């Protein structure tokens, strides 16, 4: 069995696009235009040791729409890890109860530890500030779908990543996945202290992409084809580290109009922070067609169905040509 732990498992754009062809085939089931029961009798274990709405519910809904059922455990309090049980024991025990697991955990590398202890497929639903591979896959699927609608190519385009690039696991996975394409220009816009980790810059830089870092949102967004805003992960560091963070980093209608054309797409993995003083993405773009955030969330279902189809080897859903997907 395979796991999905990191986007590093995808070594070519072809391997990702094969998965997206399966996601395309899942669209009628995701939209309930077609019924499938291929996972009837199968059980998904959703183990979330951190808060989640989208990842937990959409993985669960994807499994149910394919005929399976879901057992959810949310937070440390409701698992016996609160009594000191190890990742190894938890994973071994769950392997006897369910057919696949989606796990979110606050420590980087912890989901891989779950995977090493089991022989059932494990999906990384976010491991601390590490990775969030299924989010990056649905983000890339969204970008390709939007670009196809706009008649644009991803190769050679300008991607602006803004916000907390240090602790934001979605941007870590997305930047590495995008690097499978050719000739991209990345602008990385973050407050001081929240820059993209050096290891990711080195990995992406080796593929010959242009990478520019700036602390000015206006400078970084100028001419972008995709704006990807992120929330500051305040739960992952002390308030004093915030330093230069301010309203200057908010993606809103005024700055999008000033810096980008009518074809830009504005994305965010969500949740966006709607509390007083939060700055990631304004609601004043809510009715602007350039805002793709809810098309992004909708794409989570077919992409996650495709992940299950491959990981669980659902032969009726995976065409012969795609059965050798190596990840
Ligand atoms: N994008 C994302 O991971 O959202 P949740 O935290 O709600 O799962």
UniProtKB/TrEMBL annotation:
Aspartate/ornithine carbamoyltransferase carbamoyl-P binding domain segment(s): 3-143
GO molecular function terms noted in the UniProt entry: aspartate carbamoyltransferase activity
Keywords per UniProt: Pyrimidine biosynthesis, Transferase
Catalytic activity: carbamoyl phosphate + L-aspartate = N-carbamoyl-L-aspartate + phosphate + H(+)
Protein origin, superkingdom: Bacteria
Aspartate/ornithine carbamoyltransferase Asp/Orn-binding domain residues: 156-310
Catalytic EC class: transferase
This enzyme's EC code(s): 2.1.3.2
Pathway, per record: Pyrimidine metabolism; UMP biosynthesis via de novo pathway; (S)-dihydroorotate from bicarbonate: step 2/3
Membrane-spanning parts: none
Family affiliation: Belongs to the aspartate/ornithine carbamoyltransferase superfamily. ATCase family.
Entry function: Catalyzes the condensation of carbamoyl phosphate and aspartate to form carbamoyl aspartate and inorganic phosphate, the committed step in the de novo pyrimidine nucleotide biosynthesis pathway.
UniProt protein name: Aspartate carbamoyltransferase
Shown segment, full-protein numbering: 88 to 414 of 431
């Amino acid at each position: 069995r395979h796991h999905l732990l990191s986007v590093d498992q995808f070594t070519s754009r072809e391997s990702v696009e094969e998965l997206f062809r399966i996601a395309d085939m899942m669209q009628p089931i995701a939209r309930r235009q077609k019924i499938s029961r291929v996972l009837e009798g199968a059980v998904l274990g959703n183990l979330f040791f951190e808060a989640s709405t989208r990842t937990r519910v959409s993985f669960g809904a994807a499994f149910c729409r394919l005929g399976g059922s879901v057992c959810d455990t949310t937070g440390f309090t409701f698992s016996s890890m609160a009594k000191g049980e190890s990742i190894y024991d938890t994973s071994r025990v769950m392997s006897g109860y369910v057919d696949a697991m989606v796990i979110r955990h606050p420590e980087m590398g912890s989901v891989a530890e779950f995977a090493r202890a089991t022989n059932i497929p494990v999906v990384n639903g976010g491991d601390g500030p590490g990775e969030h591979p299924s989010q990056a896959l649905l983000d890339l699927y969204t970008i390709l779908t939007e670009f196809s609608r706009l008649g644009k190519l991803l190769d050679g385009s300008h991607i602006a990543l803004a916000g907390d690039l240090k602790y934001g696991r979605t941007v870590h996975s997305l930047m590495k996945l995008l690097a499978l394409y050719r000739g991209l220009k990345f602008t990385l816009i973050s407050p001081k202290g929240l820059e993209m980790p050096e290891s990711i810059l080195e990995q992406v830089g080796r593929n010959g992409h242009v990478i520019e870092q700036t602390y000015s949102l206006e400078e970084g967004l100028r001419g972008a084809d995709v704006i990807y805003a992120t929330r500051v992960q305040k739960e992952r560091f002390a308030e004093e580290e915030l330093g230069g963070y301010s309203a200057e980093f908010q993606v809103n209608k005024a700055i999008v109009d000033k810096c980008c054309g009518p074809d830009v797409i504005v994305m965010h993995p969500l949740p966006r922070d709607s509390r007083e003083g939060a700055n990631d993405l304004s609601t004043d773009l809510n009715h602007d067609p350039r805002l793709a955030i809810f098309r992004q969330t909708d794409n989570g279902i077919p992409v996650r169905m495709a992940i299950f189809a491959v990981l669980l080897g659902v032969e009726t859903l995976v065409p012969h040509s795609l059965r050798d997907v190596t990840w």
